[in-house]
Amino acid sequence: MRLARIAHPAGVAFASIEGDGDDAQVLEIAEHPFGQPNFTGKRWPLADVRLLAPILPSKVIAVGRNYAKHAAELGNEVPAAPMLFIKPSTTVIGPNAPIRRPADVGRVDFEGELAVVIGQPVKNVKAAQAGSVILGYTIANDVSARDLQKSDGQWGRAKGFDTFCPLGPWIETALDPADLSLKAEVDGEVKQDGRTADLVHKIPDLIEFVSGVMTLLPGDIILTGTPEGVGPIVDGQQVSITIEGIGTLTNPVVSA
Fold this sequence. Notes:
Number of strands: 20
Strand content: 35-45%
Number of helices: 4
Structural class: mainly beta
Largest sheet: 12 strands, mixed
Helix content: 10-25%
């Protein structure tokens, strides 16, 4: 199932997307998408609604340096244990919403990532049971103010600006994330071309590690890391991230 959050003629709702292309329809879900969805009976053509960020998480937990070649391209070693940092919920935007590049922050980079969406409250889950707590997967862009990341020595400011976590276009609930193609393009030029099979710390292990630190709530997001090829983005450009089995997340870049 493809779960989305939409703005439709009567308001905002969660929905399931059925079909593809011009025939795609959105079916409104009552209340929330967790557990067995209840449908209201309302539906619209996908072209008649606006896709929003598919979920509004209480927190976004990101994993740094989880692809060896990406760590190397920035002159870093792969950490023995997952390196965690938090992006505030106010970083989250949806498809086609602008990434607002702040003035006077130096270089700002895109980072295409596979994102895990948690489906139930969980603490101290073991890797072997991690699959049972996942609602599905979506695409993320871990936008980063690279100069601030280097100068601050910690990443809260560099990763935490408003609009620095585009998510979407929807959540795919039926997906094996073990070996998916991940590509990022800037103005149509491929910059990242990796596979999730190259994750150093795999998704079940990440869920065990993160849930050992903090309680995960329904809708919380774990960003699994980015492959090599990250680079700067500037006002007027467009970033598109495509993950096999999910789709494409596109966002323009503007000056804040």
